[in-house]
Amino acid sequence: MINHHLSDEILWAYATGSLPAGHALLVSCHLELCDGCKGRLAEAEALAGAMLQTAEQQKPSDDMFDLLMARVEGEPAVPAAAYTVEPRAEKGVPSALWDVLGYGFNDIKWKMVGPGIRQFILPIKPSEGESARLLKLSPGFVTPEHSHHAQR
Amino acid sequence: MQLKSNDGESENCLTSAELSALLQSLGEHRSREVFRQLFEFFAPRLKTYFLKGGATAELSEELIQETFVIVWRKAEMFDSRKASASTWIYTIARNLRIDRFRKERRYLYKDDQFFANELVGEGSQLDDHHQSQLSEQVEKVLPLLPAEQSKIIKLAFYEDASHSKIAQHLELPLGTVKSRMRLALARLRKLLEGVEL
Fold first, then answer.
1. What molecular function does GO assign, one term (chain B) (predicted)?
2. Architecture of the structural domain at B128-194
3. Which of A28, A69, B50, B152 is the Cys-Cys partner for B55 at CB 3.0 to 4.6 Å?
4. Which residue does chain B place closest to A37, by CA atoms?
5. Which of B53, B24, B3, B192 is nearest to A56 (CA)?
6. Assigned fold of B16-118
7. Which regions of chain B carry the CATH code 1.10.1740.10?
């Protein structure tokens, strides 16, 4: 059902954390469902890592490493098994969207906005000048779409 | 304040392969000395990253510390086949910055998701060879981009400026910013394919 992929400039914005919140949610949902774009995100993050590695240097305080050591020494290691993602609560609902809704598509309280179109305003705090909503287009299948009006 | 390689000992250059080996070793042995080497390499670079992102000197140092607390705790999860040490540490620093400054986005950039999903998934199209040399290549290739293009790439990286913020800042139409960024990334990809070390 996905016939649309993320552009390079959107992936770069997502990788650098500079995409507005609602748009970032849409991208996150897409990434969960699209391995191709996930691979391209890994490339964008690798580029960002390379930029960090080659960034200019500014000296931190002299005592910082000792302070840091004092903080972590004696901490037990965290076993790798502690980092598994919880199973998705409902099939077909991207986990980032689930985090926002707390329930699946069936429980959404849609509002009619036009013939065959219902919408649901997402309960997230959007970035400035942005709003994020789900649209349900009838008939038949549910097509979750977020509209994101770029600030002009 | 800028650190210069004036006295020989502070040159602070390690290759990507060396950095990844250090991080892997930290995960296995938790050696203070290895941790110090990673700290000495990355802390001055992270400082630039956080300062340019708008943090005060004090907050930058706090964020550097927090980054390394996570590095210490999670080093065991690092897998050099999935990401370079720089990418891994970048992701931690980025998430901390979002957590601090962009609270409305924090739930999308969670470390546990990154560690579980991204590093365990096989989705990356980067092969090992390409990945291990990427930083060295980027260093060569980034200066080859036209200034107007590299500026846009860097504004997103350092200041997490959105497309529309960049447009305001540079007094350009939003469409121009997006197309310039797209061109820059395409150009970068092409240059990276062609570069030999």
1. DNA binding
2. Orthogonal Bundle (1.10)
3. B50
4. B123
5. B3
6. Rna Polymerase Sigma Factor; Chain: A (1.10.1740)
7. 16-118
